[in-house]
């Protein structure tokens, strides 16, 4: 496995590639171009990408709420051809660092119960299952809710 990609904040020029990644990665609850654009410079969002110029290999989207120490990982995706190279894990670590930098001490996320790869990723990275959510997604699929405490410097 080689770390031949760079993690950085998304910029407007990433929008077409972000949309392509979104459409290839998710069948339901997809983010639109307008939503992505809004999150680019929102104080309540952090959109990260894994960049292997000219290709965009992955993305992670975090949300913050004012006066809350809880950050939410809304989305995480690695391009199909780039999976299994540590990009998802690296994006997750960068998202955690981004949440800590904003003063958050917990990161929460929901994941489809049938998404074995993502469940495995979160569990190996220290996330603990805190709830089961029936009919959570548009297609009626159930979710697990996971949370991880973010210690300073961890
Ligand atoms: C989940 C996802 C982001 C993982 O990305 P990735 O870049 O392939 O993951 P990594 O290479 O960083 O793998 C890190 C760990 O995740 C787990 N993992 C990743 N893919 C896996 C798979 N197919 N089966 C089981 N475990 C898997 C493993 O624990 C792996 O560690 P290891 O390589 O030491 O075994 C990717 O599969 C994806 O984009 N899926 C579609 C979108 C999605 O479901 N996103 C998550 C829900 S929001």
Structure write-up:
- The protein is α+β, with helices and mostly antiparallel strands and 154 residues long.
- The protein has a single domain (6-149), classed as Gcn5-related N-acetyltransferase (GNAT) (Aminopeptidase).
- The chain is built from four helices and seven strands.
- The chain has helices at 15-25, 33-40, 87-101, 116-124; strands at residues 6-9, 45-52, 55-63, 70-78, 106-112, 128-133, 143-149.
- Strand 4, helix 3 and strand 5 form a beta-alpha-beta unit.
- The protein is globular, with a radius of gyration of 15 Å.
- The two termini are 23 Å apart.
- Bound molecules: coenzyme A.
- CATH homologous superfamily annotation: Gcn5-related N-acetyltransferase (GNAT)
Shape, principal axes of CA atoms = globular
Radius of gyration based on Cα positions: 15 Å
The end-to-end span amounts to 23 Å
Bound molecule types:
coenzyme A
Give the SSE string.
EHHEEEHEHEE
CATH class membership: Alpha Beta
Main sheet summary: 7 strands, mixed
Helix content: 25-40%
